[in-house]
């Protein structure tokens, strides 16, 4: 299959599910809190539902992709995202909002493993690493778009979610036309649960690193916009620009596959985790300085998308016989960490304030740099990388 025929609709669906349905929540949260009269604790718990739903659906998606191919799960992701965004656009209270969040969060779990499988099925081996990391960077395009939408539509968060729902429907139709069906008896069909001995030995460090990284990033995704808003006398366009910076710099994460090839998996991981921890600390130190806040946003956006690309490559190296499982495991554990981190961040902010909470989560990110792939995993052969 032609590279762009799969990658471009893939980027659009990742942008819709991750950028619009999931991570735009933090940008729109202050207006939702005011409109629905939610406390920081309630909004933190609702935010954690994104990750909780993700944990369940990524397991289901990994199994179903291995059994029936990627097309069904990709389309399920689009439908779940559309339904969640639509509910969030019409919600009269926090209960309906929570249901919409569950559907929107579930879409991200549905979508990740099947694209890894689709790439392994239909993209040439020497282009697979680049395809994986560029589809993964679709999150950044969605985040940047959501920031631009907030500038134009603030404070109309319901209308914003409705527009996102319509865009997601269009992306769903694009993927419906672009993603082929896997023919019965295909020689390239993936085998459910086919793990290598090397995969079993190398999975522990991958799981721990993904968990700690998930915890360390939860506060920034959910509360960074709120932190900046209360810390400085910023206009609405400056607050939305803060979010756009996260997305635009996140596009740089698409180069993670190239850096892994040149510098090695271990170095790429350590650089990314050090940057992710530093971003929270920088924001905690100077939240009232717009330049420093944007610097923290850019550092976080670039390092987060970069790190998810590194985890993606690392996972495929560990579980070398099943691409969907290699993506599913680290992304699942990353989400488990974000469930823990998001709920704790809401409590910590209520008790200690934003600055102390962000410093704490930044330190957790720095600790994550001590965990990483060992030499055997770094030297493992990865098809397409």
UniProtKB/TrEMBL annotation:
Taxonomic superkingdom: Bacteria
One annotated GO molecular function: transmembrane transporter activity
Cellular component, GO, one term: plasma membrane
Keywords: Cell membrane, Membrane, Transmembrane, Transmembrane helix, Transport
Ranges that cross the membrane: 7-29, 41-60, 72-90, 96-122, 134-153, 159-179, 200-221, 241-260, 267-284, 290-313, 325-345, 351-371
Gene3D superfamilies on file: MFS general substrate transporter like domains
Coiled coil: none
Compartment(s) where it occurs, according to its Swiss-Prot or TrEMBL record: Cell membrane
Membrane topology per record: Multi-pass membrane protein
Major facilitator superfamily (MFS) profile domain residues: 1-380
A Pfam family annotated for this UniProt entry: MFS_1
Name assigned to this protein: MFS transporter
């Amino acid at each position: 299959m032609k590279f762009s025929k799969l990658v471009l609709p893939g980027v659009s669906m990742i942008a819709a599910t991750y950028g619009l349905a999931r991570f735009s929540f933090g940008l729109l949260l202050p207006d939702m809190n005011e409109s629905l009269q939610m406390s920081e604790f309630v909004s933190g718990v609702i935010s954690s539902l994104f990750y909780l739903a993700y944990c369940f659906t990524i397991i289901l998606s990994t199994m179903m992709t291995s059994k029936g191919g990627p097309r069904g799960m990709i389309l399920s992701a689009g439908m779940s995202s559309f339904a969640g965004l639509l509910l969030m656009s019409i919600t009269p209270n926090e209960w309906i909002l929570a249901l919409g969040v569950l559907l929107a969060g579930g879409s991200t779990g549905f979508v990740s493993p099947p694209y890894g499988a689709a790439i392994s099925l239909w993209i040439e081996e020497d282009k697979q690493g680049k395809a994986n990391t560029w589809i993964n960077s679709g999150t950044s395009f969605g985040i940047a778009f959501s920031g631009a939408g907030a500038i134009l539509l603030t404070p109309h968060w319901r209308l914003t979610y409705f527009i996102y729902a319509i865009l997601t429907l269009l992306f769903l139709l694009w993927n419906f036309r672009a993603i082929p069906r896997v023919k019965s008896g295909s020689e390239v069909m993936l085998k459910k649960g086919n793990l290598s001995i090397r995969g079993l030995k190398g999975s522990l460090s991958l799981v721990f690193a993904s968990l700690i990284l998930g915890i360390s990033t939860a506060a920034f995704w959910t509360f960074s916009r709120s932190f900046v808003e209360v810390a400085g006398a910023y206009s609405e366009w400056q607050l939305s620009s803060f979010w756009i910076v996260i997305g635009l710099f996140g596009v740089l994460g698409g180069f993670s596959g190239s850096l892994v090839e040149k510098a090695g998996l271990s170095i790429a991981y350590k650089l990314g985790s050090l940057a992710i921890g530093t971003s929270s600390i920088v924001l905690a130190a100077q939240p009232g300085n717009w330049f420093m806040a944007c610097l923290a946003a850019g550092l976080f956006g670039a390092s987060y998308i970069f790190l998810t690309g590194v985890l993606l490559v690392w996972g495929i190296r560990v579980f070398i016989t099943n691409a969907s499982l290699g993506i599913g495991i680290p992304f699942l554990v990353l989400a488990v960490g974000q469930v823990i981190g998001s709920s704790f961040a809401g409590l910590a902010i209520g008790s200690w304030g934003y600055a102390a909470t962000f410093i704490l989560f930044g330190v957790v990110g720095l600790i994550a740099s001590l965990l990483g792939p060992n030499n055997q995993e770094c030297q493992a052969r990865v098809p397409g990388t």
